[in-house]
């Protein structure tokens, strides 16, 4: 006979209800990431082939775009925490993103005789603002769903991170093929359709999330506040699109945002209690490590994609690989390895041997170093300046598992160390830090910028592999620093729980 609790709720029903709620969050994140990564995989090659940019401007345009995508979640987290509620802001963000991808998919120059560059940058602005509304809030809902069960938190966020990469894998496999056979606009339209599916399933399963949300979710909708948010979306979309178009302006915005992020953490540390301060210090240290990680991560859509375009043999088993499609290896390996790591964390946790978050970060940087050294030595088997695509397969494996140990657990880091009342804003601050680092990653990618007069693959191969080896040594240094910080971070972790 099924035993009931004092409140009359059957424990099995609570578990099933929680699983259905997690599924709704998993699915909307998956479809949102389907749209985002389907767009991301194309954007640098799109800027070169469609907009006519050189490699350096294409890298920096994507870096500015990525920075804006990750700067706006600070505002989105605040709107979710204080204005509309995390659930409502998630839905609104998904809708705005779908509109942004639809705008990017529209052939403005063909249909309306409008300047395509202007509308492309406006589309990017809408996407960045939609991402800002969306990104911090589903993460916050997952944290609230499991805040009473810390033993499941790392595993839940690891599986949730897999949703990101399932969506990324599907779109990054699909959109380059559509781009090759049907054109850029159809590829971007697929991204918009992904958001339609995501929002629709979230609305259909919303009943399972009725008890999960931030304070405004449990109050009637205030129409005045909704109208104010919608008006802000329009204004910000135009402003952000303008920033992305003008790279010098983007550079200043990134600098100011970096200063603002540092001041934000300083103010929090000064105002926090001793227990809160320990957790925040730990989070600051791990966030700095995450910033370094995303400099490596940004190479996938910049230097590694251009390396594939210029120096990788693109024929594999008779299939001609679009150069951007190598990025699909990242979500593939993550989708394969996420359940393995989730099982491993659970198994070690039951034995009291689960490594600390700081230890996992150290392992992540070590794997990252191996991946970049593989790219860096790929020239040993080159043929007329071209290397086997298997070097990319191996490098992406180590880079992707390293990502799981760093970025995948970064989401859980906020839930672990930050009070629920600040969690939405801190999710936004953590995402802002990743945006700053992705802009820096584009700057780093331009150290391998191929001069316009260099057409010889042997020369370009040497330029790319030199950068990858240097990044491998940086990752080794990060590993040693992470190892040295483990005892200190363990003490901070213990103090934050006192």
From TrEMBL:
InterPro entries: Dipep/tripep_permease, MFS_trans_sf, POT_fam, PTR2_symporter_CS. It is found in: Membrane. The keyword Transport applies. Keywords: Membrane, Peptide transport, Protein transport, Transmembrane, Transmembrane helix, Transport. The chain crosses the membrane at residues 34-53, 59-79, 91-108, 114-134, 155-178, 184-204, 225-244, 250-270, 279-297, 332-349, 361-377, 397-418, 430-451, 471-489. Pfam families: PTR2 (PF00854). Belongs to the major facilitator superfamily. Proton-dependent oligopeptide transporter (POT/PTR) (TC 2.A.17) family. This is Oligopeptide:H+ symporter. It comes from Celerinatantimonas yamalensis.
